[in-house]
Design brief:
The chain is an alpha+beta fold and about 200 residues long. It has seven helices and nine strands, in the order ααβαβββαααβββββα. It is globular, with a radius of gyration of 21 Å.
């Protein structure tokens, strides 16, 4: 185990996520990279941009202090194992992409077996092999050097602007209050997105 986190922190992040898995391990290591390069959000505000909505995101929220609710964890779900972090103070940032060649064979086999399992087509032996593969990948991720695990480069986007306080609007159909930036106008009325979608589909 080469990670900077204590066993207790690792146990807590597993508790937060609900199970330990290879995806969570990737998030743990991406968080470690963030802490090493930019620090923790509590020391100086950070922004994380996650290009996946998978398990690893929970580790990022738990270990870096960036969270969806605070608006400093942003999803740009491209289905990639890539995480970009910025520090607002000096706008320093980096993007970490899981290296495609890292344990490539094992990952390929793991995906194949997981697909079989999800389709209920896996034999007992394949299920067993899959769980062995999963823990092998998980420990591989946890034990690798960060530069071996990730391609670390410049951010590919500019730093997202801080969340703005916007006006509240009332939807003229359902009466629910919603944020101005999510408001729609239709036939002279102010509508929320679901009501707008409904009327628009009728045309
Ligand atoms: Zn998971
Ligand atoms: Zn509405």
């Amino acid at each position: 185990m080469t990670t900077i986190f204590s066993n207790e922190q690792l146990e807590d992040v597993v508790k937060f996520h609900g199970h330990s898995c290879p995806g969570l391990a990737i998030g743990i290591r991406a968080s470690e990279l963030c802490l090493r390069k930019l620090g923790h959000n509590a020391d100086s505000p950070l922004v994380a941009v996650c290009e996946t909505d998978m398990c690893g995101v929970d580790a990022i929220q738990f270990l870096t202090g960036c969270s969806a609710g605070k608006g400093n964890l942003i999803f740009r779900d491209h289905g990639k194992m890539a995480f970009t972090f910025f520090r607002r103070r000096d706008e320093k940032g980096f993007r970490a992409l899981l290296r495609p060649g890292f344990m490539a064979e094992e990952r390929k086999e793991m995906s194949r077996l997981m697909a079989l399992i999800s389709e209920n087509k896996a034999s007992e032996e394949e299920k067993e092999t899959c769980s062995v593969m999963r823990s092998k990948c998980e420990s591989g991720y946890l034990e690798a050097d960060l530069s071996e695990l990730f391609i670390i480069g410049e951010p590919q986007t500019s730093i997202p602007r801080p969340a703005k306080i916007l006006q509240s609007m009332t939807c003229e159909h359902c009466g629910e209050i919603h944020m101005e930036s999510r408001s729609r106008r239709f036939a002279g009325e102010t509508l929320c997105i679901p009501c707008f979608t409904k009327v628009e589909q009728k045309i």
